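User: Sequence for Homoserine O-acetyltransferase below. Tokens please.
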Amino acid sequence: MSEQHTFHYQQEFKLELGATLPGFQLAYTTYGTLNAQRSNVVWVCHALTGSSDFTDWWCELFGEGKLYDPREWFIVCANTLGGCYGSTGPLSVNPATLQPYFHTFPQLTNRDIVHAFDLLRQELGLERVHTLIGGSLGGQQALEWALQKPDVFERLVHVASNARHSAWGIAFNESQRMAIRQDPSWSTSTEGAGREGLKTARSIAMLSYRHYNTYQQAQQEPGHSIIDEFRAASYQVYQGEKLAQRFNAYTYWLLSKAMDSHNVGRDRGGVERALAHVKARSLFVGVDTDLLFPVEEQYFLHAHVPDSTFHLIRSNYGHDGFLVEVDQLTDAIRQFYQNEKETIEELTYEKQ
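Assistant: Structure tokens for Homoserine O-acetyltransferase:
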């Protein structure tokens, strides 16, 4: 079974934008056993509203008899800094005031989040990571981390994500934050501030996570007599309600801003120059119907990261295809590993 842990960092933590946190904690999950060579580590980075429990939201990828079998691998995932599943975030108590941070929690970038992850990695004594894998926001963080620590990560599996968040993606995120701002409760310092706005934000987000075909197949009305209370309408309400029961508007705001900040070219001479320095053997995976992170972004990564591999997932689920089409993703990763093995064998044969 997977195990839940908490990492406590008790020193001042400086953020990219200049603010500081007086320490923090990260909730993290481990699954499997570290081998004697410490060479079987897989590190997972979760998406925006995900948690460290990857066996929950990527359950078909991890488990006995699956691609990442805990009898063979040691798998780690940390809830992002700023999150609401056990890591320090806006609902945490600020030790300076003995009150929750709420709106005073400082803005984070993906670089801050990755820095926190790396402190946990060092605490665990993991000098090398066999595979770093992440999708969506988690893919952004994985790529940033691979650039920050090029000698740590041997392989990168980067799914439905990008090198720099697009104007399109930022516009979607700002529309969602506008919905939160319109909630009168957002101006209060309470745990439930912005909850109604969060529901609308999630409804907007669903339009970028899914695809026209998804709604046509699952939400289209049968027959021709319905003129109100449509399935698609109730589905949007349901999705908003569902998220509001497990998430908070502060963290949603904070992490959507972190997503917007993503740009591996910042202070590195531009995106292309930064990507040329990725040392990890990389697999970039796109979803053919992804509206939020269109496949052009993964093709771009493949074109600019040396010796990388690209795989296209075919799905009617849009961006969420990276979570739904796990069989295709599993096949892509297996082939990625197999190609590496065959290349090594060929090189060994040539040397002989």
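The CA atoms of residues 216 and 232 lie 9 Å apart.
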